[in-house]
């Protein structure tokens, strides 16, 4: 039974190749985009902290706090997942694929902005804490903060990766082109997992 199911799944996924799922050029472009969003946001936080007498500090601090807030990112992210689910369910639809792509890329950009602001805030407010504790405690705190930022980066980068997959519509050997040969029940399962469950989790947070 398991052997038959394994052979069936291999036949369903046989179209997918490394080129369908991964491209160094796309990854490099994604890193560049988040760099362009995160670095200016990081610098703004640092400038406000160290040159607040020469800047509209209160206004910029309020803007930074609004940018760090995850609510907008969460909502747009869920909408993005809904469209990804529809794109997998209906891989021939160019309109759905384009909507999913633009939503994912914009979610990624918002996440990059928030990541830059968050990193700046962590660096500034953790500095006095790290400096006031023992060395081994400082190492633990610093390592934890680095892991937190890395996790946030990877989570946000997943939106860019999905966007790259959605941008393959109409390309021979691309992700969505390969999805056309996958049986409907598998695509329906992916749709339920991505679209319905993500929406349920969003409403659970309210």
TrEMBL record:
Keywords: Membrane, Transmembrane, Transmembrane helix
Superkingdom of the organism of origin: Bacteria
Transmembrane parts of this sequence: 30-51, 71-91, 103-126, 138-163, 184-204
Protein name, per record: Uncharacterized protein
Native organism: Pseudomonas lutea
């Amino acid at each position: 039974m398991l052997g038959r199911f394994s052979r069936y799944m291999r036949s369903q996924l046989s179209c997918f190749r490394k080129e369908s799922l991964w491209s160094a050029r796309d990854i490099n472009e994604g890193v560049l985009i988040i760099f362009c969003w995160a670095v200016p946001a990081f610098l703004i936080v640092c400038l406000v902290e160290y040159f607040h007498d020469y800047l509209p500090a209160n206004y910029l601090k309020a803007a930074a706090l609004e940018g760090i807030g995850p609510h907008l990112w969460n909502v747009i992210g869920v909408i993005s997942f809904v469209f990804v689910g529809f794109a997998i369910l209906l891989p021939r639809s160019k309109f759905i694929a384009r909507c999913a792509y633009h939503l994912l890329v914009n979610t990624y950009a918002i996440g990059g902005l928030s990541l830059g602001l968050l990193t700046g805030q962590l660096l500034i407010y953790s500095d006095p804490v790290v400096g006031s504790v023992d060395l081994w405690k400082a190492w633990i705190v610093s390592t934890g903060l680095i892991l937190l930022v890395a996790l946030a980066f990877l989570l946000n980068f997943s939106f860019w990766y999905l966007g790259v997959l959605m941008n393959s519509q109409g390309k021979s050997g691309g992700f969505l082109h390969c999805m056309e040969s996958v049986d409907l029940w598998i695509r329906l399962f992916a749709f339920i997992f991505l679209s319905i469950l993500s929406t349920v989790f969003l409403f659970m947070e309210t």
